[in-house]
Q: What sequence folds into this?
């Protein structure tokens, strides 16, 4: 069937923008209701403590206070604890996790009481009046300390080591002992704090008499949250509606079933009042999930001439004090990309999940895959330094050869398609690689105070979450499909209901492009509805760069169903057989007589008035599809970062940043570029600036935006972007997803560049983030050990 | 309670406020001008930027009582009366300068104030002027491009 592609691939400006630019966004804190009351939580005085008494009497007597409750007061509200949906091993130890802590607190966000009052200020004042008597326990934050079980956080589990998952390995494991070159490295990746610029918040209301409730929440996952909150509160799913309004950024931090949402629902039910809660930023730093928090022991087996034989990784991963929705599965999401884009013969990955007295970790911007890519690309650079080979040439030598059909990978899964070398070539070209190497050589020879470093990161992602059968095999308790419904209104307008739940990704625009091309209408004719379980019935929401490759493909299939039905009606009205029709120039036309035609608006109108439909055709032109992907999608590419490091101060400036990504076919290149920009900025932040820091008592020392460096426009450079296109074989659109590419690729590109800049001084390692102090200390330590002679043209560095 | 009189977007409002009420909550909760968002509690993120007597101010750093007798402009008043977008709003649209949109009102207010001060800034100057405004979606690239674009449009009109 010929299709006229007018809109897919075009830089269409966003339909979302007008109201957001006018200040008319529907963000959660812009919503209120008659009779609404405010909820505030009482966070604990210590990060690890036994609770002796919680006294809410003084708070309850404060002005405006409607109610004040401890955990014991609300225990009857819960049908179950907060859900965790990825019990990834048979013997995983799962801690009990209720919205309020009863006997013990285990992290700084572990609330012990809740207060409800007429105003936001009254609720906050009253929360401060709740008296909590607790006796502090030793806290464990450091991963190895926690893994030693010196302090056990959940006594009933008997250990902090709650899960151990092994990929099981592939290929000849002997290479890790017998290869001519063995490189062993240890890399730590600190916790990151997501910092969506809108913190969390929710508004719960309903009718206790009818047993029906609605939760409006700044969430990425209305559909999954409906299941989760139904489990926790006991409100049946058919009586529970979840609405995601405009959401001010998610990045995984709003991909959860949170205590505060469950509390708001339970209190709306108990008090018969709309209950609103808005998280403060300081609260967000301890109560909303963190990302990363890992320690990897890494081994690379290679040859003297630069062939990678195998890579092996053994990881400790910080789970935090409880499991949130996906916590134990996050490292495992990275567990399938530890080969990178390389053609290797041996693979090993295993991890141990460790409880600590810190905020639970969960999916954050890349979720497992940035952690994996960082250690792979650091390790590959360490190998290049060891054997004195150019890191680009080493990567080129090892890249997997191109393939256009799904192909079995050493990781054990099938990769949809891949062609990695063109992206590497293009990145080198855009980065002026040879020129910067010359500049580097000259500055090294001069002993310049500002040294040039070039960092390369070639990567592969596993996106498009996810094939349901694979999720099942991995013990994830839900599916990975998504749905779309198309309703063609009479006279030409189209309503789409998508199961994805965008919060900045531009689905209203990109989905309209898909439908406009498929149905011969304009994007302005298409309204895309989302983020409400009563509006878009069938959905699995937005995360994991899945929306276009799963939800977008479901939409493409729904378009086909609409056209199948429309073809029957067109044939009937034109008095020809269906075979005599062809879809061309946005209409069904009679072959050989193209003026005899019916457009989708024509047919939608006929199907709506239904005065003369074929006998086997139901009224209303609509189509619904649910797509379960047969495979993941596997984007890839190469990023190159050029830095200038001041060897006197350790300060790094990015001179050039190049990203060449392959996300398959592109629906809207403007949106795709925007996704890369944001991801790379986060990757640079992770490499140079951001880190959750704890004091000796386990308190978060970087506890707000003044102490945790979220970079501004002055820290983030302009980026040069390009793309290669290797269509995915997983879906009919040929798309792979782009939401996380930058975050996955950028951190090792930047850190590799920093190390490269000072490797001639003997520096082989700088921990992430590579702050001026860390870089300066690395230079001083290398000098103290005695540096190798700077050799112009060599990659430098000690083995 | 303290009585204040503030001119917001051209209309003078007289209201009784608690002395601790921040200007941003006065705008959002007393006047229902919810276009100005709140992103932090440490005056770090710039999301709540408005104009006070023509200067960009983080409206969480100022008490409502301090705005007594002054003129405040918010994102709601940036478009013309007939709905035509301000050149900055239009440039943000054309350059994909927003994704989730939450930081956008603050970015536009900060940029509008800066462009009055420096009508033809360099890219580096624009980046410097945005130091107090955080965005997590765009990597700033298209925000900066939007402001350069708007500066050109505004200079052409001037």
A:
């Amino acid at each position: 069937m010929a299709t006229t592609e007018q809109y897919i691939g075009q830089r269409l400006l966003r339909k979302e923008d007008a109201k957001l630019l006018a200040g008319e966004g529907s963000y959660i804190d812009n919503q209120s209701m008659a009779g609404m009351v405010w909820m505030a939580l009482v966070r604990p005085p210590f990060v690890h403590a036994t609770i002796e008494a919680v006294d809410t009497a003084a708070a309850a007597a404060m002005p405006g206070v409607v109610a004040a409750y401890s955990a014991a007061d609300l225990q009857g509200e819960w049908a179950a604890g907060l859900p965790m949906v990825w019990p990834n091993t048979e013997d995983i130890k799962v801690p009990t996790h209720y919205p309020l802590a009863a006997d013990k607190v285990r992290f700084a966000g572990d609330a012990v009481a809740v207060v409800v009052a007429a105003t936001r200020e009254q609720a906050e004042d009253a929360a401060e009046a709740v008296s909590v008597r607790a006796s502090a326990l030793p806290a464990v934050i450091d991963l190895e300390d926690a893994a030693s079980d010196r302090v056990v956080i959940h006594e009933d589990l008997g250990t902090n080591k709650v899960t151990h998952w092994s990929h099981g390995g592939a290929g000849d494991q002997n290479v890790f002992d017998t290869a001519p070159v063995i490189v062993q490295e240890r890399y730590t990746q600190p916790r990151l704090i997501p910092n969506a610029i809108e913190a969390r918040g929710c508004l719960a209301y309903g009718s206790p008499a009818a047993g029906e409730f609605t939760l409006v929440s700044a969430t990425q996952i209305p559909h999954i949250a409906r299941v989760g909150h139904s489990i926790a509160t006991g409100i049946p799913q058919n009586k529970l509606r979840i609405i995601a309004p405009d959401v001010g950024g998610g990045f995984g931090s709003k991909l959860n079933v949170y205590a505060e949402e469950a509390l708001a629902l339970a209190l709306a039910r108990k008090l018969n009042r709309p209950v609103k809660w808005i998280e403060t930023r300081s609260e967000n730093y301890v109560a909303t999930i963190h990302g990363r928090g890992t320690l990897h022991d890494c081994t690379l087996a290679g040859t003297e001439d630069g062939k990678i034989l195998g890579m092996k990784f053994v990881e400790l991963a910080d789970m935090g004090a409880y499991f949130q929705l996906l916590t134990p599965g996050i490292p495992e999401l990275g567990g399938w990309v530890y080969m990178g884009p390389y053609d290797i013969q041996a693979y090993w990955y295993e991890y141990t999940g460790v409880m600590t007295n810190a905020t639970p970790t969960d999916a954050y911007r890349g979720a497992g895959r940035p952690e994996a890519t960082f250690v792979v690309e650091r390790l590959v650079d360490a190998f290049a330094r060891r054997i004195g080979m150019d890191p680009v040439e080493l990567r080129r030598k090892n890249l997997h050869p191109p393939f256009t059909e799904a192909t079995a990978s050493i990781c054990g899964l099938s990769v949809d398609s891949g062609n990695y070398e063109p992206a590497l070539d293009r990145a080198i070209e855009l980065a002026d690689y040879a020129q910067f190497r010359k500049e580097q050589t000259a500055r090294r020879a001069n002993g310049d105070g500002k040294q040039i470093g070039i960092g390369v990161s070639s990567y592969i992602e596993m996106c498009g979450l996810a094939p349901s059968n694979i999720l099942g095999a991995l013990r994830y308790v839900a599916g990975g499909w998504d749905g779309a419904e198309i309703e063609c209104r009479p006279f030409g307008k189209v309503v789409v209901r998508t199961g994805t739940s965008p919060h900045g990704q531009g689905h209203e625009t990109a989905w309209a492009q898909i439908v406009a091309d498929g149905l011969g209408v304009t994007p302005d004719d298409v309204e895309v509805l989302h983020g409400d379980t009563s509006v878009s019935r069938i959905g699995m929401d937005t995360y994991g760069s899945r929306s276009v490759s799963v939800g977008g493909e479901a939409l493409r299939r729904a378009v086909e169903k609409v056209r199948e039905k429309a073809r029957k009606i067109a044939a009937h009205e034109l008095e020809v057989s269906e075979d005599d029709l062809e879809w061309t120039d946005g209409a069904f036309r009679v072959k050989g007589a193209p003026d005899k035609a019916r457009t989708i608006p024509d047919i939608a109108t006929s199907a709506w008035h239904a005065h003369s439909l074929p006998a086997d055709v139901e009224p209303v032109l609509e189509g619904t599809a649910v797509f379960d992907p047969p495979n993941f999608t596997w984007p890839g590419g190469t990023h190159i970062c050029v830095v200038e490091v001041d060897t006197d101060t350790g300060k790094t400036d990015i001179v050039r940043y190049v990203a060449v990504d392959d996300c398959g076919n592109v629906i809207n290149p403007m949106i795709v570029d925007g996704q890369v920009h944001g991801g790379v900025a986060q990757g640079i932040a992770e490499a140079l600036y951001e880190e959750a820091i704890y004091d000796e008592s386990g308190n978060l020392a970087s506890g707000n935006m003044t102490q945790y460096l979220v970079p501004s426009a002055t820290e983030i450079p302009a980026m040069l972007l390009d793309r290669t296109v290797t269509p995915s074989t997983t879906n009919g659109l040929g798309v792979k997803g782009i939401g996380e590419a930058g975050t996955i690729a950028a951190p090792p590109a930047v850190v590799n560049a920093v190390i490269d800049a000072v490797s001639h001084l003997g520096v082989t390692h700088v921990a992430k983030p590579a702050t001026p102090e860390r870089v300066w200390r690395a230079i001083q330590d290398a000098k103290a050990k005695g540096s190798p002679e700077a050799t112009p043209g060599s990659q430098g560095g000690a083995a | 309670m303290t009585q204040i009189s503030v001119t917001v977007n051209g209309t003078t409002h007289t209201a009784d406020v608690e002395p601790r009420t921040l200007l941003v909550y006065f705008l959002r909760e007393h006047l229902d001008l919810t276009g100005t968002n709140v992103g932090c509690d440490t005056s770090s993120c710039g999301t709540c930027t408005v104009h006070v007597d023509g200067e960009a101010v983080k409206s969480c750093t100022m008490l409502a009582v301090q705005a007594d007798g002054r003129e405040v402009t918010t994102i709601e008043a940036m478009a013309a009366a007939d709905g035509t977008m301000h050149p900055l709003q239009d440039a943000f649209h054309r350059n994909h300068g927003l994704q989730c949109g939450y930081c956008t009102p603050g970015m536009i207010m900060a940029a509008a104030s800066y462009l009055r001060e420096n009508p033809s800034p360099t890219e580096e100057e624009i980046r410097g002027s945005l130091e107090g405004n955080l965005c997590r979606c765009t990597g700033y690239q298209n925000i900066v491009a939007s402001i350069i674009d708007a500066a050109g449009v505004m200079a052409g009109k001037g």
